Amino acid sequence: MDAAFTDEQEEIRRTLRELLAKRSGPDEVRAAVATAAGHDPELWTQLAERLGLPGLALPEEYGGVGCGPAELALACEETGRALAPSPLLATAVLAAPLIAALGTEPQRAELLPEIAAGTLTAALAVPGGSLAVALGLTGEGAEAHWSGDGRAGGVQARPVRDGWTLYGEAGQVLDGHSADLLLVAAHTGGFARSRTLLFLVRADADGLTRTRRTSLDDTRPQATVELRDVPAELLGTDPADVAGALTAAGRTAAAVVAAEAVGAAAHCLDRTVEHVRAREQFGRPVGSFQAVKHRLADLYVQLQAARSAACYAAWDAGRPGPGEPGAAQLALAQCLETARAVTGETIQLHGGIGFTWEHEAHLYFKRASADELLFGPVHRLRAAAAQATGLLAPHGTGKGAAA
């Protein structure tokens, strides 16, 4: 593994940081999340047209840039630093790899160029609010009961003359209220022969209701998706290795979310250092007090360790094959933990202003807390990594192991 960034990677970082500095400051972020879409469509268009961000990790034959998870994670470190709300995670990190891995050639040829161009956004809908388990991050995605297991609840798929219809509900769907296309995990075959497949649902499909929900982190909009006999198209062919594709997508998602957490923590630490240098108490800068220096030094060491873990996870996600067992979970756990620690100290070291709604500190603290709820918690990520490496034997199968 070569830890040095290439000239191309550095250019991605520089260009994206300059663009976000102009278009995604704290005021712009608050304005964007208050809109119906939950993000700034003009900024999304610029990210697509100037940087090709939605197609950064897609093959060139489908209109993508042809890079890999490392470049995507590097770009998302910058979006995390600015806390920029966008459909990037839902579309490019979760949905696009599944379409590329499972879709038929006509499906890939139709959908991936639109995603790469930024004209089509997509979202992954899994029932039960169990995204981390479905992606194989905090449980055995192939065996766990995350999608209803054919029983009551979840989303059920029924074959009809012209395809399939879906009935059920999925909650906590990232950007589910605004996505042009939904990838819905649904059960087929009834309880005795139940298995999970992925289906394509267009935003204008009959019987589809999408409701944006209030969430802890407004910069990651979430929605409840209700399907009442909604016409759908099977993604790929039957049978398909959905669990394997979800686990592979989970490796990339873990690296990207880890990189975002590092970017957010780095921004908070930079702002805190600036504040304690300027803020005076007892006639001297707050940053000159030894206790404050020690706290900042500890955060800096923790942040650099987290950045190294995120870089390794991104490199590992780009390798062919299943990758190193537990690498994605361990990196994500370390970065989420670091983001939570740094954002918490940011509020503390900013004093009274850090607790106000007008300051941006609470936005970053909410992002750190919400990410752990969505993709963690940290102790389950580490437990899953220990099981994957054989350090910890699972205590059973099914619901017991997943819980």
Automatic annotation (TrEMBL):
Keywords: FAD, Flavoprotein, Oxidoreductase. Residues 255-383 form the Acyl-CoA dehydrogenase/oxidase C-terminal domain. InterPro entries: Acyl-CoA_Oxase/DH_mid-dom_sf, AcylCo_DH-like_C, AcylCo_DH/oxidase_C, AcylCoA_DH/ox_N, AcylCoA_DH/ox_N_sf, AcylCoA_DH/oxidase_NM_dom_sf. It comes from the Bacteria. Its cofactor is FAD. Signal peptide: none annotated. One of its GO terms (molecular function) is oxidoreductase activity. Its EC number is 1.-.-.-. Gene3D superfamilies: Acyl-CoA dehydrogenase/oxidase, N-terminal domain, Butyryl-CoA Dehydrogenase, subunit A, domain 2, Butyryl-CoA Dehydrogenase, subunit A, domain 3. Residues 6-118 form the Acyl-CoA dehydrogenase/oxidase N-terminal domain. The keyword Cell wall biogenesis/degradation does not apply. The keyword Flavoprotein applies. Belongs to the acyl-CoA dehydrogenase family. This is Acyl-CoA dehydrogenase family protein. It comes from Streptomyces solicathayae.
